[in-house]
Amino acid sequence: MPLRGAFSFQGQAIPAGSRATVPVPLPGQSRFTPTLMPVHIVHGKRNGPTLFVTAAIHGDEIGGIDIVRRLLRHTALKRLKGTLIAVPVVNMYGFLQHMRYLPDRRDLNRSFPGREQGSLAARVAHVLRTEIIDRSDYGVDLHTGANHRTNFPHIRANLNDPETKKLAHAFNTAVIVNANLRDGSLRQYALEAGKPVLLYEAGEAFRFDPTATKAGVRGLVGVLAELGMIAKRRKPKPHATLEALSSHWVRASRSGIVTPTVKPGDRVLGGQRLASISDLTGEDHMDVLAEDDGMVLGMNQMPNVNEGDALFHIAMFKSPARAEVAVDAFHLSLEGLGEEDYPAHVPED
């Protein structure tokens, strides 16, 4: 079978069956400080879809970088069908300066579709859209918690779209949230362009988290297999994947020092104590209670909180007990995973 044509990117021809890292110019802050976005392309020998994987669209959410780096070392990519476009750092400005936003203080993930002659954020969004998103059929955008919050690994997606829902389950987390779209987000633009995109949330800002990384790499392998870009392993799925009915934040009703009693992934019951808030001398305690049965999807990590601060993100399920079992099995399924131990599990016939 003859090889398919080369993948043309930034004036470079990447032959079928090869891979290359290509620097993409971004708007510089001066002629002495050019800014380049690293893009790694794996162009398979045989035809297939094009999948993009992006990380660090917020400069502080660096957990996805580790996921992309490990995915690119996976031997399954040697037999890839189609094309994988991996961007380990989208927001190079924020990443290098250890900050979330761009130098113009705008949120890149609220700036799509972007504009070539717009603000700095609009120009970067325009580059990512035209060079990466518009040239892809599917996408996965990797995120972590922000603002001193940490998240239990989960997928946020438009579950009303059957194809997106299928990919969300293939990612193989324990929890999926049917998340509303944010105006100007990458995911909103992709949906309007007819491209199914998943948003993976796991861990916290400025950290590489082993559980988040393992679940993220395994999830991407599962998506590649579901799309037919790599071979599936006919093994039973190690745990259930449950769709949250809804989610809400439990907020602080007073200011003080918070001491949590639960962690992400824990099942909680209505009326259960999630934390206590006390004053600076450790007196005048007040309990923070769960409003309903559910699971801790994310939580604040800062000890000192203000009245009204979001403390715990609680996901609601049809069966909280079943969600607890799924979370326990999810953790067990990640134990001992190494570089090549990321099977794409599918149900046995």
From TrEMBL:
Ranges for domain Succinylglutamate desuccinylase/Aspartoacylase catalytic: 47-225
Keyword Hydrolase in record: yes
Pfam families, alphabetized: AstE_AspA_cat (PF24827)
CC cofactor: Zn(2+)
Domain of life: Bacteria
An annotated Gene Ontology molecular function: hydrolase activity, acting on ester bonds
Record key words, sorted: Hydrolase, Metal-binding, Zinc
PANTHER family (UniProt xref): BLL3975 PROTEIN, SUCCINYLGLUTAMATE DESUCCINYLASE_ASPARTOACYLASE FAMILY PROTEIN
Name the UniProt record assigns to this protein: Succinylglutamate desuccinylase/Aspartoacylase catalytic domain-containing protein
Naturally occurring in which organism (per UniProt): Eilatimonas milleporae
